[in-house]
Amino acid sequence: MLISKVSDQIKKSKYISRDLSWLRFNYRVLDQARDPGKSLFDRLKFMAITSSNLDEFFMIRVGSLYNYLDYGKERTDYSGLRELPFRKKLLDYAHRFVNDQYLTFNNELKPLFHKSGFDILKVSELTEIEQKKADSYFKNTIYPLLTPMVFDNYHGFPLLMNQLLTFGVVTRTTDEGKPQDRVTFVQIPQNLARFYEINRKDKIIFVPIEEIIRWKIKKLFRNVDIVSVNLFRITRNGDFTLEESDDLEADFVQEIKAKLKTRKKGRVVRLEVERNPSQFMMKILKERWIIDNANVFTINSLLDLRALWQVVNHRQFKDRGFKQPGSIPPLSLPSDGVDLFEYLKEHDVLLHHPYNSMEPVVNLLERAAEDPSVLGIKQTIYRLADQSRVTAALLKAAENGKHVSVLFEVKARFDEERNLREGERLEKAGCFVIYGISKYKTHTKMMMIIRKEGEKVTRYVHIGSGNYNEQTARLYTDVSLLTTNEIYAHDVSEFFNVITGHSRPNEYKYLMTSPKGMRHQLMELIRHEARNAKKGLKSGIVVKINSLEDREIIDELYKASKAGVPIKLIVRGICCLRPGREDLSENITVKSIVGEYLEHSRLYYFHNNGDPKVYSGSADMMVRSFDRRIEALFLIANAELKREAINILYYNLLDNQNSYIMREDGTYIKRRTGASEEVVDIHKLFYNKACSTEQVELV
């Protein structure tokens, strides 16, 4: 009866729960692992991604929910549920996902290992010679790194690290004639490869190191009776929302460093444990961490499927997965050999990654670092690649005496330590470094190069939706603009003055920015389409984003739908809007594209009675994007580039190979190709530049 009441309440809400919507997104990622048309190694890659996605979900989203529960704060989800019933609904759904995840791994993927040239085996499945190799590896490498930590009346409960595999070993001794059980924890070092690799003729054998440790566990417990050996893994709360400082004068770098430490001590929100664990141990863990069965996930296979990356990335299998085509030249940039400093004086360039390489941007920055005519470089940085060429270029520019200003976002989740480290390197080289804007996260992506050319100064601007990360630029779809247009240059200069100083410009001509104004400006563009529809004029909205969650924007889209505006939304992940509901959103459709590349680009199209306005940039339609982040959307003003951006949206709408259609109840169905329908796979199609040259209508 209670379950039925909760379900009815969720169905009645005109909004979809953000967290339940996210779990449905991870199901779409899991769907890639289930696809028999992909190679096994690509399927394993997606399986590993679902696991890392779920880790972040528990750390941040479930962690956020527990902030409310633990701090006694009220929260009503978009579904209409309060904290406790929503916790039950969310964790029930998470259990269902994990069950489906492991059914896929055990029943669909594992049977394919052997014929694909590898196996994941336990020690008992090794030959005698292989066992000797594993024994030697344990003695020489693993054993010296293991530290048993007992918990009893004389030893306090140890600090167990977030997301590390841990053995809970229950032992029994007899004290004064009475059997005494106690538990000792052994954490597996994170700096060891997850699998010990053995070459067996034409196969690679991957042996989980936890199985080697289990095999030799008695080496750590000499002359002690072992009752049970239990492998488990915990996930701690990594969300600091309620602890964020409102003190604008705080030493922000030190604050972030302190919070990185508390992440290691955050409350436990999930316990993954292998089958049939010791009830003695489980009672201790549940009481210690104030969790119940809803937080406990029993795993009947390999714990922590992120380990599969070691298989996917193995040198022997590097050619067995997805083969990325070579990038093609941008439509607006005729050849690789062009001098960008000269070309950009007369032309704007639109880049569509990964189909267009990020090289023009990185090369321009590297040239600027060496060019004696360049006076300065300003840049925002959110996430960087390992051995970043961007950082190297900025360091070189500073060494060459140029003014370099960099805004490093130290709240880029899970990249905080790297950004702090890289920021400190730039500071030492003489760069002017700003570590974020206190309570706001700087998520915008922009760069400006100031170059003296004769009697004038030219400002070269790059602004886009993606990070300055050469590695992810090959895996994420993004859109960016290179230009010397004075209107962009003026707006970006003003914007840099805002985020590095105290300037408050009245108005930008080509930019929309947050936290000031973006939500209102987008709502006004939506209202304008509604007014046109009511007048009988042509109208339409097409938006491609990562997430749609802001209630005010959703309500405005509902009003526009009622006014007769056709609205087509391409939302990769979270979507809290209900499409196709009678008398609410009948004119709204939602699709999600999930495939080989992570759809990261944002594009906003408003018909404007035949004179479309098209924007791109860093912002999604989320509360955090409008209220708690520094974001920017830029108008694509050039007619040719605007047409190219519209074509990108057009083919996204046509895609029938990577697309899922959202239904009114919040569920998704895979888009299927009709018998006479042409196959459209945008992750292949966009490598053919001819597909983006024609004039099209979106609505």
What structural class do helix, strand and pairing data support? Answer: alpha/beta
The number of helical runs is 19
State the low-pLDDT regions, or none: 241-250
N-to-C CA distance: 45 Å
- What is the gyration radius calculated from CA atoms? 27 Å
**Main sheet: strands, sense, barrel:** 10 strands, mixed
Helix content: 25-40%
Count of beta strands = 27
Keywords: ATP-binding, Kinase, Magnesium, Metal-binding, Nucleotide-binding, Phosphoprotein, Transferase
EC number: 2.7.4.1
Domain Polyphosphate kinase C-terminal: 340-504, 511-677
Binding site for ATP: 53, 476, 572, 600
Topology:
Layout: H1 2-12, H2 18-33, H3 40-71, H4 83-109, E1 118-120, H5 128-142, E2 148-151, E3 165-175, E4 178-187, E5 195-200, E6 203-208, H6 209-215, E7 225-236, H7 252-263, E8 268-274, H8 279-289, E9 296-299, H9 308-312, H10 340-343, E10 349-353, H11 359-370, E11 374-381, H12 389-399, E12 403-408, H13 416-428, E13 432-435, E14 441-442, E15 445-453, E16 456-464, E17 476-483, H14 486-500, E18 511-514, H15 518-534, E19 541-545, H16 551-562, E20 567-571, E21 588-593, E22 598-599, E23 603-606, E24 613-617, H17 623-627, E25 629-635, H18 639-654, E26 659-662, E27 668-670, H19 682-685
Parallel strand pairs: 1-6, 8-9, 11-12, 12-13, 14-25, 17-22, 19-20, 20-21
Antiparallel strand pairs: 2-4, 3-4, 3-7, 5-6, 7-8, 10-17, 11-15, 15-16, 16-17, 18-25, 19-23, 21-26, 23-24, 24-25, 26-27
Helix pairs in contact: 2-3, 2-4, 3-4, 11-12, 15-16
